[in-house]
């Protein structure tokens, strides 16, 4: 259990710290929206492919919360298979915070709205990107 929580902590904490952008001049957009129950803080979004999943994101974005909703747009994304992980960074410290027992203090969500009792799996969270723009609604 500690290994699972440690893995989840490292992955979610590194969303902004190690985010890098891998884009090209051609590609499509992925717009991600999430309802947030509080306007406090912001929401951190990360885009992964299978090789980078729960490691270093391909693209990391931060969004302010406006009227109970946060939105981020990943631009110039080449066709392929991706997954999105996001979390509500209430205290804006750019990392996901946890209780002493290992439970997350901050809400998080995953593409396809996967909720499990451990870290998400790429196979559950993946979605296909082609030439057309994609809109994702993720719950926390």
Sequence-ordered SSE layout with sheet pairings:
Layout: H1 2-17, E1 28-35, E2 42-48, E3 59-64, E4 69-77, E5 80-89, E6 108-110, H2 122-125, E7 127-129, E8 134-137
Parallel strand pairs: 1-8
Antiparallel strand pairs: 1-4, 2-3, 2-5, 5-6, 5-7
- Give the integer mean of the pLDDT values: 86
How would you sum up the global shape?
Answer: globular
Q: What share of residues is helical?
A: 10-25%
Tally of individual domains: 1
- CATH homologous superfamily grouping: Immunoglobulins
**What value does the Rg take, in angstroms?**
14 Å
Give the SSE string: HEEEEEEHEE
* Overall CATH class: Mainly Beta
Beta-strand percent range: 35-45%
Main beta-sheet strand count, sense and barrel state: 5 strands, antiparallel
**What is the helix tally?**
2
Describe the structure.
This protein has one domain (2-137): Immunoglobulin-like, CATH 2.60.40.10. It has two helices and eight strands. It has helices at 2-17, 122-125; strands at 28-35, 42-48, 59-64, 69-77, 80-89, 108-110, 127-129, 134-137. The strands form two sheets. Strands 2, 3, 5, 6 and 7 form a five-stranded antiparallel beta sheet that branches. Strands 4-1-8 form a three-stranded mixed beta sheet, with no helix packed on it. The protein is globular, with a radius of gyration of 14 Å. Mean pLDDT is 86; it is low at 1-10 and 15-24.
């Amino acid at each position: 259990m500690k290994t699972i929580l440690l893995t989840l902590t490292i992955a979610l904490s590194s969303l902004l710290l190690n985010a890098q952008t891998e884009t090209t001049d051609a590609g499509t957009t992925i717009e991600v929206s999430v309802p947030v129950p509080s306007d406090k803080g912001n929401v951190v979004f990360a885009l992964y492919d299978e090789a980078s999943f729960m490691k270093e994101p391909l693209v990391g974005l931060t969004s302010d919360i406006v009227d109970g909703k946060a939105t981020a747009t990943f631009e110039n994304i080449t066709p392929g298979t991706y997954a999105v992980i996001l979390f509500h960074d209430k205290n804006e410290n750019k990392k996901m915070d946890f209780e002493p027992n290992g439970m997350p203090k901050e809400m998080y969500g995953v593409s396809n709205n996967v909720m499990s009792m451990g870290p998400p799996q790429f196979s559950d969270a993946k979605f296909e990107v082609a030439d057309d723009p994609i809109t994702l609604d993720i719950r926390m």
